[in-house]
Amino acid sequence: MKRIIIERPELQSPLQRATTRGLTFVFWVVWIYLWLPVISLVAWLAGIELFRKYMIDNDGYKILFDDINWYAFIIVFSCIIFIGWARYNLLRFRDKESRKNPFIVELAAYVRHFKIGPQQLKQLQAAKRLAIRHDKRGDITQIDANESVTDLGKYKGE
Fold first, then answer.
1. pLDDT tier for residue 147 given thresholds of 50, 70 and 90
2. How many domains are contained in the chain?
3. In the prediction, which pLDDT does 52 show?
4. Across the strands, what pairs with 143?
5. What is the DSSP secondary-structure string of 44-74?
6. Which of 53, 80, 103, 107 suits 24 as a labelling partner, its CA being 20 to 30 A distant?
7. Are residues 21 and 77 part of one domain?
8. Which of 70, 93, 116 delimits the end of a domain?
9. Which candidate, 59, 57, 63, places its Cα nearest to that of 36?
């Protein structure tokens, strides 16, 4: 039987944490870099003196128009790559169903994993809303069934 997976970031290795944080930082820098032309344009239109100096007085708009060609090339090139990849996958996986039906977990497996009784599990499965509290190891410490939505707010920030 497959294990029930709950995300536990504290169990990640230092390399995994560093990689995740590094990639997040890199992509934020790229995202901000991509927005710089729009930010410059808005600031220029708002009449900020520094942008006026560089864009108008020093012919910065000519450089901007030269760079627009590169932006257009990168956009078109990216579109070609993405469309090509989609077509490749369409041809590769045409008429092949790779998705499998999810495996059925037996009631006993849930009972063993969550360390609760079968009757309590059936009641919880029938509940419309659950508020489940965990300790630092991920074990269930408290279950409140069928609480109203406003009552769930008391768990925020804890």
1. low
2. 2
3. 67
4. 132
5. HHTT-HHHHIIIIIT-HHHHHHHHHHHHHHH
6. 80
7. yes
8. 93
9. 63
